Each structure stands twice: as C-alpha cells, then as structure tokens.
Amino acid sequence: MREARRFVLAVVLSVAAIPWAAVGASVGLTVMALSLLYLNLHGYLTRAAPWLAGALAFALVFGVGRHILFMAFQALRRGILNQHVLLEIGAFAGIAGGIIGLSPLLRHRHKPLERKGLNTCRKTSATPGGSVS
Q1: What pLDDT is recorded for position 87?
Q2: How many angstroms separate the CA atoms of 97 and 24, rounded?
Q3: Burial class of residue 39 (count of CB atoms within 10 Å of its CB; 0-12, 13-18, 19+)
Q4: By three-state DSSP, how is residue 120 classified?
Q5: Element (H, E) at 82
Q6: Quick one: which of 46, 49, 54, 88 has its CA closest to 71?
Q7: Which of 1, 33, 113, 114 could cross-link 118 (Cys pair, CB 3.0–4.6 Å)?
Q8: 54, 102 contact by CB (below 8 A)
Q9: Among 83, 43, 45, which Cα is nearest to 65's?
C-alpha cells in the first residue's frame, strides 16, 4: 500500500512539473535564439555559422541519431531498403554537400549576376515604345 501511494505521488508531481519544464525550455530556446540573432546581426557569427551548422549536423547524425544509423546499417547488411536507410542517405548527402560548401578547394566562387550587369529578373515588353513592364 505504501508503494502505491508513493507511485501515485510521483505521477502527480511529474504531471505537475510538465508545464514548468515546458516554460523553462521555451524560455531557454527564446534566449538562445535572441542571442544568436544579436550575434549574427553584429557580424560575430559570419565565419562561425557554417562551422556551427556542420558541427550540429555531425552531432545529430552520429550522436542523437546513432540508433537510426545502426538500424540502417543492419538493414543494408540484410539487403533491405527501408526508411532508416533512406534517412541516412539523405543525412550523408547533406553532410557531403556541407563539406563541399565549406571546402575552399571544392567551392566555385563567382560574382552574383547583378554585379556583372546580367540581371535576368527584369522583363521587357516587346511593344514599339520600348517601355518596361
């Protein structure tokens, strides 16, 4: 009987703590987002943002999503193509694209079209007056 009361008390306290945890998490995310926005607007994250995104991608694929990676490996070993395999193919394609984008040897630098005077967004009309529509 005593353990049943302790269990009920634990359930009640857990349910009561859920709103406070949600408020704390939302406040924490808001503070983090606003601080990152401030740092970005003042130019402190200009060089670090791509590397932070890459580090986050690696942490998600090899840390949080390690069980999905393991299940995808097991499925490929059995010759099965399932959602885990497809998800990891997409994750590794994204990481490969990020590595290509961050590598100065593989990145093709070019000037935007507007600087070269090749703005392709303007439409000209074929009317005899030559007016721009």
Answers
A1: 95
A2: 35
A3: middle
A4: coil
A5: none
A6: 88
A7: 113
A8: yes
A9: 83
What burial class does residue 112 get, using C-beta atoms within 10 Å of its C-beta: 0-12 exposed, 13-18 middle, 19+ buried? exposed
pLDDT truncated to tens, each residue of the chain (133 aa)?
Answer: 888 889 888 888 888 888 888 888 899 999 999 998 898 888 888 888 888 888 999 999 999 999 999 999 999 999 999 999 999 999 999 999 988 888 776 656 655 555 555 555 555 555 555 555 5
Determine the pLDDT at residue 111.
57
Helices 66-77 + 83-102 axis angle, to 10? 120
Cβ pair 92, 68 in contact under 8 A: no
73 with 89: CB under 8 angstroms? no
Residue entry with tokens 């439409």: 123
Q: How far apart are CA 92 and CA 61, in angstroms?
A: 8
Can you tell me which residue has the tokens 């998490």?
A: 25
- Answer whether 0.70 is exceeded by the pTM: no
